[in-house]
Specification:
With about 250 residues, the protein is of the alpha/beta class. The chain is about 45% helix and about 15% strand. The chain is built from 12 helices and 8 strands. The structure holds phosphoenolpyruvate (PEP).
């Protein structure tokens, strides 16, 4: 049975007071309204993670995640945070390779492979993001583009290591645009990625990997996307900043 996961990516949003209020609301709503077996991950700005820990420690369904980490364990990398720091702070998840990191910080597949390694060495669960641009989608080569991202950043892992990775397919043209992949488009890519994993690691390993969909997921479209057999949950940007919307998305996945 694959883990069902709904992760919220807050990006660079919310002051501390707003973050505390949003977390309290989400914790209360999830506890009151969600009965099913779904893991909720709040990927907040790193600055707030240690403070937010006490807000989620009595909420068994809710975990915290960072939005990025450096590939090195420590050193002269001003402004960065490392996987050992997240581990020491008790933060279990980290997003790796979000398209905004790839686009604005020029993160390459090779660098992301090193980040995945560092996360796994420190016992963190990487939420590894992949996805094609609009131009790539229009060139009809989009499946190979995303398969290559997996090959170059994940296929050096052992099967045991891969089993600790969560994958998030996020078509770049659907992120923050209000355009969502249709459930057919999402299922096509998720099935292709699972087949790609299976070609390297075998079907038993591939069938155990949670593949989340991300890209303008909202309360109105979550249920249809989550009904796809290879869509195991969601990575949610904008809608994770509103407790009601986010909780409704979690309820659609339970
Ligand atoms: C994201 O940034 O990971 C994302 C999916 O954003 P949005 O839901 O706003 O499209």
């Amino acid at each position: 049975m694959r883990k069902k996961i709904v992760a919220g990516n807050w990006k660079m949003n919310k002051t501390l007071d707003e973050a505390l209020a949003l977390t309290s609301e989400v914790v209360n709503m999830i506890q009151d309204e969600v009965r099913g077996d779904v893991e909720v991950v709040l990927c907040t700005p790193a600055l707030y993670l240690t403070t937010l820990k006490k807000y989620v420690e009595n909420a068994p369904k809710i975990a915290l995640g960072a939005q990025n980490c450096h590939e090195k364990a420590s050193g002269a990398y001003t402004g960065e945070i490392s996987a050992p720091m997240l581990k020491a702070a008790g933060i279990p998840y980290v997003i790796i390779g979000h398209s905004e990191r790839r686009q604005y910080f020029a993160e390459s597949n090779a660098q992301l492979a090193a980040k995945v390694d560092s996360a796994l060495e420190n016992g963190l669960t990487p939420i590894f993001c992949c996805g094609e641009s609009l131009e790539q989608r229009q060139n009809e080569d989009y499946v190979n583009v995303v398969k290559t991202q997996l090959t170059e950043s994940l296929f050096h892992l052992s099967a045991d290591q891969l089993a600790s990775v969560v994958i998030a397919y996020e078509p770049i043209w659907a992120i923050g645009t209000g355009l969502t992949a249709s459930s057919e488009q999402a299922q096509e890519m998720h099935a292709a990625l699972r087949a790609h994993l299976s070609s390297k690691y075998g079907s038993e390993v591939a069938d155990g990997i949670s593949i989340l969909y991300g890209g303008s997921v909202g309360a109105g479209n979550a249920a249809e996307l989550f009904a796809c057999p290879d869509v195991d949950g969601g990575l949610v940007g904008g809608a994770s900043l509103k407790s009601r919307d986010f909780t409704d998305i979690v309820k659609a996945r339970q």
